[in-house]
Amino acid sequence: MVPQREVMSRIAGAFAALLVSLAGSSAQAQAPTSAPAASGERKNFLWEVSSLTNKVYLFGTIHAGKKDWFPLPEVVEKAFTESKVLVVEADITDQEAMMKSAPLLMYAPPSNLETAVGPEEYARFKKHLARYSLPEAPLRQLKPFSAVSMLVFSEWGRLGYLPNFGVDAYLIQKARAELKPLIEIEGVETQSALIGSLTPEQNRQIFTGTMKAIESGLTSEQITGMVNAWQSGDANLLLEIARKYNDDVPGAKEFEEMFIWARHDAMVKKIEGYLGEARKPHFIAVGALHMAGPRGLVELLRKRGFVVKQL
């Protein structure tokens, strides 16, 4: 049996990956984040945002990756080096914080995943466990969102994108090696509380819909498309890829609102605070989809009068 601490470590990365995968976009309601890059001009998922006294770099991340992605493109590495502080959604390497949040993410016996989703859906889930060589016993105690997160992250791994090469983890390790201050714009506790707020019905819906997406090949298709969009710095393409998930998975639009857009007001307030400091650049790394569209962080900050440009 895999120890609970190891299971929770896996879930830490899985949550981040699933938040991005679930956060689709209604294309009809979205406008381009920026004009497409000119032919031959390479862009990154990186924006410089400036105030009168300071600037921040907004960097959209992918939560699993490949060894040959590092070091990151020169412009990204330069922005990181110039910054005095690294800001992340949550410190996914903080095992202690993850363990403290476990009661929000797992059932206490005698409750378990099978009793929550029913024997038929649980049997489908077990088939996926065999496919990804995941242990049943510890995952049986996970709540549906947590359990299906493990499947999504395993699909990332099957496609060659591994958590130990996640961009977030790379930046956190780099900051610690350079003794660069690290702060969380949300934190494990806040994100776990959001997941813990899902009702039993919402948990079942997200569980069933995500398994359907995996079985149909939609998840695999989306992961590949998202990585391509991220590597080309194309926020418009990322939104287009996300739209298909919303169209095909029941409830995805509602989860999008809860897991992405509803979080932005609090994020923007903190970023405005960073921009109010004097000559102390911050490097802000959050999931790539948080940057996209008229309700994304990039446009929200532009509308507040800050100077924004993609690098």
From TrEMBL:
Signal peptide span: 1-29
Record-annotated membrane-spanning stretches: none
Keywords noted in UniProt: Signal
This protein's record includes keyword Signal: yes
InterPro entries: TraB/PrgY/GumN_fam (IPR002816), YbaP-like (IPR047111)
Keyword Chloroplast annotated: no
Pfam families registered for this protein in UniProt: TraB_PrgY_gumN
Protein known as: TraB/GumN family protein
